[in-house]
Design goal:
The chain contains seven helices and 13 strands. With about 260 residues, it is α+β, with helices and mostly antiparallel strands.
Amino acid sequence: MATPSALLNVMIDAARKAARGLARDFGEVTELQVSKKGAADFVTNADLKAEQTLFEILEKARPGYSFLGEERGMIEGTDKTHTWIVDPLDGTTNFMHAIPHFAVNIALQREGEVVAGVTFNPITNDLFWVEKGKGAFLGAEKRLRVAARRHLDESVLATGIPFAGKPGHGQFLKELHQVSQKVAGVRRFGSAALDLAWVAAGRFDAYWERNVQPWDVAAGVLMVQESGGKVTTIDEDDGDVVQGKSILASNQDLYPLILEKLRAA
């Protein structure tokens, strides 16, 4: 049985409290009028409430830490060595359509390096957590390990598809063409945070996407690494993977095979 540290307990507590409001609001989503504006406004409010909850709990527990959130951007703290990286609702479109696949995502960066993370889906009650050097876990019982598959034709990959207003549609279709001919399946579930947690848990064999954000991937990058996987950018000149230009996460055996296909695109 794994016991989270005091730091992790703060993060888990924050995630659970923010998720309570989201779970309650999720129950209301199906009642929403299907007017675009009404639904969008509702989700924005749910997002903001969740981020405010996270901000208050994390600030109280660790005063002075900087805070990078999807909704409020960067808030510089007095402690320049620590930054919370937070997405209060990863999978907004799923949430908006009453699809129960979304998560609260929290990571802590210390001197530029992610040292802890939590990804929590309040609908399934899946709580993924990780601490650098101590492993990644699902709940208190299950140690995470990437899948052991070694052949592309047995593998299921996750990805993200650019939606309206996002760049990269042509590039994505080329990559999908290269990859999909060689694998057992490609899935697009709509939450980068959960895609990475599922790679760490061995549910997906790999995940790739372009134009993600630090709050989408920071916790999951560490989860995959601590579960024995490999995570990098797709292109060599894309810089640090947490900064989000591109990402590929997989086990050690499949990683070079998938990278070759993506670069061939």
